[in-house]
Design brief:
The protein is an alpha/beta fold. The protein has helices at about 10-20, 30-40, 50-55, 70-80, 95-105, 120-125, 140-150, 165-190, 195-205, 210-220, 230-250, 255-270, 280-285, and strands spanning about 1-5, 25-30, 45, 60-65, 85-90, 110-115, 120, 130-135, 150-160. It has 2 domains: about 1-160, NAD(P)-binding Rossmann-like Domain (Rossmann fold, 3-Layer(aba) Sandwich), CATH 3.40.50; about 165-285, N-(1-d-carboxylethyl)-l-norvaline Dehydrogenase, domain 2 (Orthogonal Bundle), CATH 1.10.1040.10. The chain contains 13 helices and 9 strands.
Length: about 290
């Protein structure tokens, strides 16, 4: 297939690398230098300077951008150059309402749209083991599956357009809640003199375990490495989408709203470049303890 890829960020770049192994690939990034560097490191990949160049003659375009706003702007340009029957696969952590609007705009030109956000982060993107959450028609999701197969271990069709983004938003606000709770709980135990590694070991053999305690804390906190893989600002954005999604569904959401407000405050305090695990580092500082093994 001939595929265009927009957005060579922390997770987008390894996704594009996987695609380049199977397909004819063009890449675009808001920072042209990053696209040029990607081209130089991956023989056969072509970097382009404009969205028009990216979309023309492609069977599908994949977007992996910060928000749905950027996707909507790109979709308007793609609608001018992509022919009817082509496909836009949006792997952005976007919002369901915008996805439906983008799909409607593209449909006027006969272009299909699937929202296909991913979970697993850069490490699983590199190994092709992401989970992809899809929204769209059955036929369009089947076509999108051929594209995302390069970087996915699991692809789930959740419903019509917007379903994938709704699922991703709820997933990420639950991740955010687990980070807050695990951080506060573990610094409490450390302050009481319990060994952090033993505490995590017990949690992970008990009912309080989560992805945060099973993977993130052992790999990044107990080791003291703190790799910066996902910005807290993006997780706060996703939490906002989750709250809006719950409100649109007519659901009472006091817990989700609390998590969103906590992340708004953390984003303001820690800044735009903070990592999503920095709330645990902040909890350490406030408690006067460190969670190490």
């Amino acid at each position: 297939m001939r595929i265009g890829f927009a957005g060579l960020g922390a997770i987008g770049a390894p996704m594009a690398e996987r695609l380049a192994e199977r397909h004819e690939l063009k890449v675009w990034n808001r920072s042209p230098d990053k696209a040029a560097k990607f081209e130089s490191e991956h023989p056969g990949v072509r970097a382009v300077a404009t969205i028009s160049e990216l979309g023309v003659d492609c069977d599908a375009v994949v977007t992996c951008l910060p928000t749905s706003r950027e996707v909507a702007a790109i979709a308007s340009e793609l609608a001018q150059v992509m022919s009817a029957g082509k496909l836009l696969v949006d792997c952005t952590s976007g919002d369901p309402g915008s996805s439906r609007e983008i799909a409607a705009t593209l449909a006027e030109s006969g272009i299909s749209f699937v929202d296909a956000p991913v979970s697993g982060g850069p490490p699983l993107a590199r190994t092709g083991q992401l989970t992809v959450m899809c929204g769209g028609s059955e036929a369009d999701v089947a076509r999108a599956g051929e594209v995302v197969a390069a970087f996915a271990a699991k692809v789930v069709h959740l419903g019509p357009v917007g379903s994938g983004h709704a699922m991703k938003a709820i997933n990420n606000i639950l991740l955010a809640a687990n980070i807050l709770a695990a951080g506060e709980g573990l610094v409490t135990l450390a302050r009481l003199g319990l060994d952090p590694r033993k505490a995590v070991e017990v949690l992970n053999a008990s009912s309080g375990r989560s992805f945060v305690t099973e993977s993130l804390i052992p790999d990044r906190v107990l080791t003291g490495t703190w790799p910066r893989l996902f910005r807290l600002a993006l997780l706060e954005k996703d939490a906002g989408i989750a709250v809006d999604t719950a409100a649109d569904a007519g659901i009472d959401h006091p817990v989700l709203d609390f998590v969103r407000e906590e992340y708004r405050a953390l984003r303001a305090e820690l800044g735009e470049e903070a990592d999503y695990l920095d709330p645990i580092r902040l909890a350490e500082q406030r408690a006067g303890v460190v969670l190490r093994g």
